[in-house]
Amino acid sequence: MAYTFQSNRIFLAGGMSSTISVVGMSDFGFIIDAAHVHTPAGGQGLNSSIQDAFNLAWKLALVEKGLSDPSLLSTYSEERVPVIIDMLKITSELFRNVATTTKDEAGLSRAILALRTRNDHVKQFGVNYRWSSIVLDERRPADEGEDLRANAYGSQKDDVLRAGDRAPDAPDLVDGEGKTYSLLRVFGPTHHTVVIFSTNEEVLEPYLSLLRAYPKGIVRTLVVSSQGSSGLAKVDGVDMIVVDDGGHAYATYGASDKEAITVAVRPDGVVGAIVRGVEGLGRYFEKLFH
């Protein structure tokens, strides 16, 4: 694999090809296949390549539009290289165990165990960028270990949602017209989604005032009221208001009526920020936008 996916205006993305080819161009550089070549064990190649491309694409789009500084593109390598390093370790070990020629009981046991545990390691639901310089987590303990890159694939299970994790879905979100949605239907590849967990309309205006500074369509807002609440009336500037009818969103994101939180979900479906107030959200967007 390449240990950096960017060199000036040249970017590497994905790949299992034996030859190098240009797969995309922009005013800011060339996108070239391939960044990594590895055993097909685990079936990680295509998914990893798509994640490479998606991680780069939304950042490149913001830079092309003049909304972000070109330095944002350096976070592509920062975020993806540790993930690919972890992926190569997992798939190489899986290949060695499954392809063993050892016929003794110990060798067969390793092969069987590798097959049984395969799905736990390669579903990719645990892939994260918790160490990234452009994520912000105000709930992260100050004494949490700094070597977060070592768990880029999420192999060390952690049930606590952190900034940099894949944004999980939550069903049974009901709007004022009785229509039901899930979070994944609201998130989108062309915009950030700011999810405000609150039943108090008064907390919304500072957020809306902040977000008015950004071009329309770049950031969308979703207000989620807690289970059992009557929800909020339509508020100018808010794209969508729903009630967490099943309680799934509040539980999954660790929100409560006592501690309102706000979550920013990136275009690539990653939690960019978990903050307790508008000041934190402002600091997060300062990392991304001019």
How does this model look, in words?
Pfam families: FAD_binding_3 (PF01494), Phe_hydrox_dim (PF07976). Keywords: FAD, Flavoprotein, Oxidoreductase. Its cofactor is FAD. This protein is of the alpha/beta class and 290 residues long. It has 2 domains: 1-124, no CATH class; 144-287, 3-Layer(aba) Sandwich (Glutaredoxin). 31% of the residues lie in helices and 17% in strands. It has 7 helices and 12 strands. The chain has helices spanning 45-64, 75-98, 105-122, 183-186, 204-211, 248-253, 278-288, and strands at residues 6-7, 10-12, 21-26, 29-33, 136-137, 173-175, 180-181, 192-197, 219-225, 240-244, 262-265, 271-275. The protein has an 8-stranded mixed β-sheet with strand order 5-12-11-8-9-10-6-7. A 4-stranded mixed β-sheet has the order 1-2-4-3, with no helix packed on it. α2 (75-98) packs antiparallel against α3 (105-122). It is globular and about 65 Å long. The two termini are 33 Å apart. The relative contact order is 0.12.
Give a quick rundown of the structure.
The protein is α/β, with parallel strands linked by helices and 290 residues long. The chain contains seven helices and twelve strands.
Kindly identify the CATH topology of the largest domain.
Glutaredoxin
Shape call: globular
Beta-strand content: 15-25%
Rg, Cα atoms, Å: 21 Å
Main traits of this protein?
17% strand; oxidoreductase; 290 residues; alpha/beta; Glutaredoxin; 2 domains; FAD; Phe_hydrox_C_dim_dom; globular; single chain; eight-stranded mixed beta sheet; 31% helix; oxidoreductase activity, acting on paired donors, with incorporation or reduction of molecular oxygen, NAD(P)H as one donor, and incorporation of one atom of oxygen; four-stranded mixed beta sheet
